Amino acid sequence: MAIGKRILLFLLTNVLIVVSISVVLNLLGVQPYLTAKGIDYQSLAAFCLVWGFGGAFISLAVSRVMAKWMMKVKVIDPSSVVAEERWLLDAVSRFSSHAGLPKVPEVGVYESDDPNAFATGPTKARALVAVSTGLLRRMNRAEVEGVLAHEIAHVANGDMVTMTLIQGIVNAFVMFFARIVAWSLSQFVEEEHRGVINFVAVLVFDIAFGLLGMMVVAAFSRHREYRADAGGANLVGKPKMVAALKSLQNAVQVEEDAPQSMAAFKISATKKRGFMALISTHPPLEKRINKLQFA
Description:
Layout: H1 3-28, E1 34-35, E2 38-39, H2 41-61, H3 63-71, E3 74-75, H4 83-99, E4 106-110, E5 117-120, E6 128-132, H5 133-138, H6 141-156, H7 159-186, H8 194-236, H9 238-257, H10 274-278, H11 285-293
Parallel strand pairs: 4-6
Antiparallel strand pairs: 1-2, 3-4, 5-6
Helix pairs in contact: 1-2, 2-7, 4-6, 6-8, 6-9, 7-8, 8-9, 9-11
């Protein structure tokens, strides 16, 4: 996708979020939380809940469309599928049936040298599973089936909605406490400067508390990855799931040893340390493999 289209899509999405949440706030009659007497905590709580959950759920609602546009995903048409893509559809259909999904997710392929895959969508009945061309080139069919089973397990576990709820809760708490602390600090300066100090402090504490919130969300995400590995093993068999993870591990090692290493993985993660480990959404592959093998 051209840079201009990506920027336009980003702006349109954010306009949609702002307009939608503003309408909801007006319909709920939420008043400004700063009054002459200080903070109206009820209005602040309502404001933060609507913005925290609203932004997260609107992003979830458009996630499938965004993924197709941003990643240039080519959705496989079951009515005109070529032979080499038929087995992808058959595998996803088989795993979806075993997982009890109400509808088989859309299946797509996108151009990327990185061995990646992802699942997204607002509901179990409106999901998308996409794999990269790099993954298809590097893995045999048994290993790809392991990856597909992992992604179907994410859909079956409702991970998209679960993580959206968690993100919404974290967003609301971050906004709530950031504004309380910012207002408290602004009371220590002269009245004519309080507005500016409060504005700047809100930005600073949104970022600071947001980083702490990222750790919470990442911790939940890592837990869901272990669950998806176990769910994938139930669908495809533990040997194939372990083989898929080991293949990813080998790919990571090859790229790290090369002059230009891959920047990120959507279905795997190298071992990180310190702060980067705390905000990593995926556990190290070594831990995932060990946990699955000895479960």
